[in-house]
Amino acid sequence: MTTTLFPIKFESAYRAEDSSEEELSPPSGLCFTNEGHLLLADDFNHRIQVYDSQFNLLHSFGSKGKDAGQFQYPKGIAVDPEGNIYVADCWNHRVQKFDAEGNPLLTFGACGDAKGELNEPYDILVEPSGNLVVVERYNHRIQFFDPQGVSLGWVGDRGTVVEEQLAELQGTPADLLAPLLFEFPTSIAKDSQGNYFITDSGNHRVRKFNPQWQEILSFGKMGTEEGQFQHPQYVTVAPNDLLYVADLNNERVQVFSPFGQFLFAIDGANSEQAFEAPCLTAIDLKGCLHIGFTFNTRIHKYLIPLVSQKTLTESLLSNPAHTFYQALSLEQENDNPKALTAVEKTLSLLNENTPGETPPDNGLKMSASLQLSHLSVKGTTVTDGALGLACRAAEEQLEEARNNALKCFLSWQEEVAKFTVLLHEEQRKIIQDPDGVRDFNRDLHVAEQEDKKFYRLTQNEFYSYRKTVQQFSQFICNLIESRPAESQSKSLKDVLLRQTGETLSLMKEYFGQKEKSEESMVQILGESQGEKDKLSAFLTQFYSNCRTMDLQQHLQFEQQSHWFNLRILAQNTSTDVSLESLAGKTAGDLSAFEDIVKILIGFHEDWLAYPQLEQKILTTLDSLSTNSPSNKTGNKKDLTLTDFSPISYDSENLDFAGILNALKAEASPLNKEGDRLVWGQDEFQLPGFSDHKEELAQCALKLMQTQATYQEKAQELILQLEELAQNRRDLDVQLKQAKVEDKVSPITINDNIAIVQFQINLIRRMVMSLDINQSLNLHRLILAGAFLSLANNESSEAQKFFQAFNDYLSERDQQVRKISKSRKENTFKLSSLYSQAKERESEYKISEISDSMKIEDEIERVKIDLDRLEFEFQRNSKIKNVLGKLAEFLGPLSTSGENPGFRETRIIEKAGAEIGQTLAPQGIHYNKDGDLLVADYENHRVYSYSQQGSYQFHFGGWGNAPTCLQYPVNLSTDSENSIYVIDEINREIKKFDHHGNFLLQFGRGDFGSIFSLSVDAQDNVWVAESEQNRIRVFDGQGKILRMGENSNLKEPVSIHCLPNGEYLVGDRSESLLKHFDAQDNLISETGKAGLGVDELYFLAWHPSHGIFGSDFWNSQIVHLNNQLEVQSVYHKPGRRAGQLGKVGGLSIFNDQLAVANFDGGKVQIFDLSS
Question: Is residue 464 a contact partner of residue 401, using CB atoms and an 8 Å limit?
């Protein structure tokens, strides 16, 4: 690109070797003072030089050393409004503050990676508040300090782009690998909008963060093309917000828009000056650019364009990139109509396909489409034509990303196949002659390297594919939430159906291939007798299938994102979305349900992915059944006694329509209309059933007896799984303990691990088939019982059935509660073991290695127990809930006694740029305007949603900086909608304004473990401190107002302030809830006896509806009136609409009760008006 549109001019060079009597070194830091003087870090001379505006040397300060005022290789320099100078004293690992004359005022920092310590500070930025932001090159992080040099925390950790991608793909927890990863960051700059830019030098990119330090852009990668870098060393922001980046090893300074578009470059060719290894950029008060070099003492000065972005973009050529830059600039100036026009022009240009031209950047296609959707959400009208262009562009981008991932995956499979043949041949030789001397196997080495290369390439394509899916989903979601016209809603539905169908078709294809492979594997395993030659074919197919499952994870990520948008479409528009849309098919195409069930069965072996996928399918099924008219009318079915025959547990005849009916029914009430039953949108009639009462009663009893068989078989399979899991764990231990000189054992152990894992997968599939058949059997049982009740059958057989039914329901309820207790105990045990392991790890005592290994082994055992308990909990909960349909239908005939009065109206999930990821809600709270704030515990963020459930913004993220959170467990708001959040790990409370901007923090080092806080009518913050057995009250600035020590408390875990100054407390005493007056006197309390309820960790109150408390571990909600009399216990654990997982926070606005379903990954909204 020429500089015609971007006029630059080399003006002068200064600071030559011969201009001073002293020997100069290349500069390592540049900064201009408020008077226009230049401060320069003279690196090898360990000093700061001060030049006037004509670049005459005024004076220097500093010398080599460690005392105050001395330096060791000073780097970045910054100046505050008072003229004080801050220097990154790099090799002394500290920051020094000087007055304008160079007299030392303050020194802080020491070598290390703890809070307040530094490791090669490289650059500094002074905030308007006086706080400092320090870039640490060798700690790979950004640390924040107050004006006195006290650390406020940091963000970032060391990591490469590859590690970053793998961490996201594999769901690595933030506490293991912090999500902001840097590799030798070197500089920082800030634009007029308050955004920060960091040169992530080792990762060859520039990263942009908003004022809350949330990453909003990353651009660049290693290379020599325009927009690529080889170690970007320094970034400077011009007055018009253009970015000037010193691209060290490409020997140029690249210029970008603040949105990451490459504009032009300054190098030796266009400046006609020597341009070797530029490392510094700075802009003076007149807007001139100054460039420093790594091996040159001279500084180059350039005249650069200073016109506004608006003027600049208007003069650009009409190519897509420049037009899109114009759109972004216009939106930043809030000129949304013109911005939309520019986006439409961008999409139109991208759609043109002139022969001979380079194909447009498809990344720009998605960016432009997404920008159009953002403008739509802001209320800008989008025409049908513009919507069509955007949808086409977005689909092309998605399909290309998907195809690229598939193509790379298939290439990887081919390379692995070559490597596997050579590997097995080598292993065969080792087994035959373990001590034999072998030549270096060059072919094997080359094949292994190719395998690794294609693995990295494939994971990179998977990552790009996933990011594209998220952008595409956000694009569709934005358009839906902008309430489009009916014709546009239909267009969006067509887009979703196309992409859903395409993805599902691919998943079916790969599962089909895998199923055929598994049939062959079973045969091979039976014939191999452990022989390596025969076993090799099994192993080749096993590991190939494992890679196929990796691919399927990414395809189902896209599928789940489309299902999310189908739910949003059904909820927010009048467009009819049929259940067949789940498979990308039109209403009436019954093959859709076969496809969905087969995909679900295909994930049977992955006990992490399967529950999530099942949850999304069921959530979509429930949502579409409720919101779309075509799904509310079912079939009328005339039944016969044959339809009440028991279904054998080992039946392989999958009735896909029957499975769908059973699934729909599980989340629907059972009602009667005359002599007909209505369940799951289907009507059932049993003609002449009054004449066959005895036969019907006998059928019902046989169905009940079959349930006992299912329970027995399920236990058998679970025991087999436990035994195999233990075998797998033993093999893992053996592999760890294998000696280095033992070449054979690792081969045989790994082979056995593959065999055992394959056996586990087969058993899991049997368990799933058992569950499917049991669901069908239960469906028949409930219908039989309901018809039996309609017949008023008082025969002994009928009475026997109803007694057996009540007993079975009671057994399931008791079993669910028993499992809940075991889950709680094992979770606390696991937490204790993790703490022990962490403590041992920090001590580094070799003598205790065996103890550490025992702890690790115990951790794995408890995790297996928890997996089993979770499986049994979900299984028994499902049975209990289905039985509950009949119990509610029978009314007085049943002894269940549960109140079905909660009615779920909608759910809230993770949205924005993170569609497809899982929400982990703990504390939730409606502010006074009806906005719902959600503490996303495991993702370390707080999300804000409108009263209608639309995503607004989020803040937080893992880290130690003031803006960051580590496991936010609860939150509340005051009368100004300021947000108070409990940070569980740091044991402190952080206060943010209503936009999520950090204000202050208090309590660190003072609080023990805390779960609950509440804000009273005077905006004071009440905190329940269980370890200290007290309630403390703070003002809005974190100052203690009163110490609520009270003999009537026993380890308080929850608190809720009432408008009249009174308050409610849940603690660990025998009382369920306690009510105190404003003077801390106990007014009343109610006991737990006979309720089957544990501690109430979260409370909500409403003047009309009363009090609601969440029993987290038992997945239930307790409803009390304002006199603390228990009205009901809502105990419906499960994954369907209206059912609960572990219950987190509760909050009420108007007649809407919001419930945090922690392991369900959603917030449920219940209507209390009924």
Answer: yes
